[in-house]
Every structure is written in C-alpha cells, then in structure tokens.
Amino acid sequence: MTILIVLLCILFLIVLVSAFRVNAFIAFLIVSILAGILLGIPLNKVTASVEKGIGDILGSLVVIITVGAMLGKLVAQSGAAQRIASSMMNFCGEKYIQWGVVTTGFLIGIPLFYGIGFVLMVPLIFSIVYKYKLPVIYIGLPMLAALSVTHGFLPPHPSPSALVIQFKANMGLTLLYGLIVAIPAIIIGGPLFSRTLKAIPSKPLESFVPADMPEEELPGTFNSFFTALLPVLLLIGATVFTFSENQNPAVSSFFAFAGSPTIAMLVALFVATFSLGIFQGKKMGDIMNIYGEAIKDVAMILLIIGGSGALKQVLVDSGVSGQIALLLKDMDMQPLFLGWLIAAIIRFCVGSATVAGLTTAGIILPLMVSSNTDPNLMVLAVGAGSLMFSHVNDSGFWMFKEYFNLSMKDTFKSWAVMESIVGIVGLVGVLLLNQII
Fold first, then answer.
1. DSSP secondary-structure letter at 258?
2. Which of 129, 105, 123 is nearest to 198 (CA)?
3. Containing domain of residue 121, as a range?
4. Which of 59, 177, 260, 355 is the most exposed place for a label (fewest CB within 10 A)?
5. 273 C-beta neighbours (distance < 10 Å), count
6. Which chain regions cross the lipid bilayer (predicted)?
7. Which pTM does this prediction carry?
C-alpha cells in the first residue's frame, strides 16, 4: 500500500505539471504535503519535513546556481561568447565548420545555462548558414546537442549539481567522468546523426538573426576562453591534485578550499567582473544590473529544485524510501540502469529534465547507498535518463521548432531523436565507466 501511495503521488505530480500546466514548484509542494499526510507523517510535522527538504538542498546550491547564472550572463553580454565562437570558426575553416560549431557549443555550454546558451548560439548558427549556404539542421543540431548534454551531464548546471549534493558525490570527479561520457554522446548525437538530416527543409526566421557586436568591442580571445572556463579549470585542477602522491597538508587544505564549487564560482565571477566588465569599459552599476537580470533567469529553477528537495525529505521521513529500495532490489536490475530508466520515464511524462532528474534522486538514493553504487556515476546515469524522449511537453522542443521554422514531423525527426540518442549513449558510457573504475 505504501509503494502504491508513492507511485500515485508521483503520477499526480506528472499530471499536475504536464496535463494541468501547474507550476512545477507549486506542484511539488502540493504533492509533498499530500504524500506526507497519506504516508502517515503526523500533521504537525508535515510542513517541518517540507521546509527541511527545501532548506537542505538549497543551502548547498543557491550560491553555485545564482553565481553561475551571473557568470553566464556576463559571458554572453560582454561579447566573450561571440569571440569564442568566431575564434573557433576561424580555426576550423569552412571544411570543418560543423566540428567548430559543435566544439563551440560544448565550450559555451559548460558555463552557460541551457536557455541562455540556446538563445545566444542560434544567431551564430544562422549567420554561419547564411554565409556558407549550408543546411540549417546539419549545422545547428550539433551545437544544440552539445548544449543539451552539458545541461544534463555536467556541473555547475542545476540538475547535475543538485544530484551531486543529494547523492553526496564529488563535484570535480563527477565533472571529469561527465566529460568522458559527454564527448561521445555529443559526437554521435550531433555531427554524425545530423548528416542524415541535410534534406530537412528549414528557413530560419530572419528576425532571429540580430546584428553582431563590432569586432573592436569584443574582449580578447584568451580573456574570453579563460574567463568562461575558469570554474571548470578550478574544479578539475583541485580534483586532479587530490590524486597526487606528495601532498603538503597546507597546500592540500588550500586546494580543497579553492576547489570547492562555491569558492570556484565566486573566484570566477570576481575575475569576470574585471576581465569582462571593468577592463572592457563597463561601469560597476551596469555589471550589477547584468547580475540582477541573471537572477531572474534562474529564480524558478531554484524553486523547482527546492520543491524536489521537499518531496525527497517527505519520502525519507516517512520511511518509504527504504521500502522502495527493497522493492527495486528484488527486481534484480543494475542500479545505474534503473536510475536512468526512472529518469527517462519521468522526463517523457513531465518534459523537464530538471524535474525528471531531481524526482528520480529521492527514489533511487536508498538503493544507490545499499548497493554501494558509485554516486558520481549515478549522477551521470540519472542525468542521461533525464534527456530522453523530448517531445511536445518540453520547452526545448518548441524553441527548436520555432527558431528553426520546422514542421512538427521534422522536429520529431531531428530534435526528439537527437535527445534520445545522447541519453542512450550517455547510459552506455556510464555502464562502461562502471566496469573500468
């Protein structure tokens, strides 16, 4: 009966979000309170459980997500992203321009949130298409595949960052494993798959092609690359150092401090404020306005993450998580595959990769712990599953359709299939890594 209540509550969450279009945060609150009552938590403790769940998860993530949004916004508005893109194009040449595009999408996608990256990169895609007279989907899909994979697999993006916290994984190690898994997923779902889509008719709307910033107003190439990738460099650097044999305690302490996600993001933002802001002639007030606008971009994401934490805490406090773990263990299914499968099913029903990943976390966590599954790999398995089956209930589906001026049929043939390819390749990569490490 307990398991049935949980399944019905998750189904109710899916119906609220997908069928009735209820805001995901509100839906999480409603379902969390309802689940707490039905699962026998005393009425006077239900709200305390919900509040604890929200506080626990947001306490570790607010700085990472908000500061990451500020950095991404400044990278976009300063022209650093445009400089990175143009540098990649000049380096690759027309013959290898598709690989230049996908590499650009990957590099841009690491520091930028998906929505910001999409809107920023689409004009670049269209400008390349118009300049070189190339098929639009052939050029555009690889870049967007890279953005999607970084959004689903790699910290400091919201869902993988939240999963790292919930699974008690290592942020830097997850990022390293994520890079190993992400690259083949991008290549197969992007450049290779898009070669089959050259015949899809698409005439991008010219209104989506704004004028580029003048070359003389762009920051330098090194400055643009270094600043955009600084959080990644700090996280990876600190993680690599922990594997070195000769470690001075004082130096180890420093790298542990500097390599923590909060400090890495703050250091990167501080550097960017000067390198892409003050030193480029911007006033501090204007830079702060950019940061203020960035907060608006991620406010709802933070609330959704908080809501998912509430549901997870209710499951923990009711004791049902342990029962779910026992039930799932009886299914004799590989935990990494099971985490991927649950996330994929929820993604299909709800449409949000973030909601799918975070909802799965509360269900799969007890099994992950009891089976001693690598938490870093579980983050990636759930992240890969959360990218599966994008269709009409996913905002990314409609953004792609409208920006590229496609029919529904062609959007399914291109975007929906690409998202499923990267999800499947991601799972395969995680299972292979699990055999090696």
1. H
2. 129
3. 2-436
4. 59
5. 21
6. 29-46, 58-76, 96-129, 136-154, 174-193, 222-243, 255-278, 298-316, 336-365, 377-400, 412-433
7. 0.70
